[in-house]
Amino acid sequence: MEYFYLNNGVKMPALGLGTFLLSPKDAEDATYSALTGGYELIDTANAYMNERGVGRGMKRSGVERSKIFLVTKLWPSEYEDADAAIDDTLKRLGTGYIDLLILHQPVGEFKTAYRAMERAYKAGKVRALGLSNFPEELIQSVVDDCEVMPQIVQVEAHPYYPQTALKTYLKKYDIKLMAWYPLGHGDKSLLKEKVFAELAEKYGKTPAQIILRWHVQSGNVVIPGSKNPEHIAANLNIFDFALTDGEMEAIAKINKNTRYYNMSLSAAARTYLAIRPDFNAQE
Q: How far is 68 from 62, CA to CA, in rounded Å?
């Protein structure tokens, strides 16, 4: 494993397991496979409806809690009463603290929720704070008002959409980027790019492993998701080689500034809230 140090000094693994779209049982099994196979970071969320499954997988693995970097997120419907929501998520996960707590969408009372996250941070319930899917101007609004600087911004990022401008902005505050859709949402055209085929052959890796290695060397925390134990193991197998500067430059040339999630993320959150105003994270 390789690690990054966040702007508050917290040490964070560079790669972890994402649990988006996994059922509670699949999340439990995937978490168990990941942690017993050498992973140290697990990413979940209230909205994934699998926090309890992740908590069960953690317990079942037998891995000490201090050796697990646990990430979860608050959904907008919980922003107004975020203090209670944080306590509820701790109960669902079966843990006394969260390593990284993230606001899932930039809508509604997100500043109210961020202040609650700051209180949880000061109380020792949370070790680091983050924002997910926030555009630069709303990140800045949090930075301008906060007492505790965000440590992470989680957004879509991959070689077709490397978030170059956002990363330049985040660097001013030493905020790390955490990438979702790190492999391009399974896009075969990305995985079949000539540069990845050539590098996979050179290093004895798969194109997916080359892309994950590119993320880590680019300074991104990466959370590929899977419920397949073989894929989970393969995604971790990227720390025994390094890409050269020339190879990193060759990968940079395939940037298309194209994202896969085209719908406005804020609009998506508003739509979800309209459909399920009574949303809660119970399984």
A: 11
Of the pLDDT bands very low, low, confident and very high (cuts 50, 70, 90), residue 186 is confident
164 contacts: CB under 8 Å, gap ≥ 6: 255
Of 242, 244, 247, 257, give the one whose Cα is nearest residue 194. Answer: 247
In one-letter notation, the amino acid at residue 278 is D
Identity of the amino acid at 212: L
Residue 66 makes CB contacts below 8 A (sequence gap 6+) with: none
pTM over 0.90: yes
Alpha-carbon span 148 to 129, nearest angstrom:
8
Helix (H, G, I), strand (E, B) or coil at 11: strand
As annotated, the active-site residues are: 48
Is residue 53's pLDDT more than 70? yes
Tell me the CATH number of domain 3-275, given options 3.20.20.100, 3.10.100.10, 3.40.50.80, 3.40.1190.20. 3.20.20.100
**Token couple for 19:** 């649990």
pLDDT, one tens digit per residue, over 95-139 is 999 999 999 999 999 999 999 999 999 999 999 999 999 999 999
Residue 72 in tokens? 């979860």
H helices present in 147-244, as ranges:
164-171, 188-191, 194-203, 207-217, 229-236
Residues near 174 by Cβ (< 8 Å), separated by ≥ 6?
Answer: 6, 7
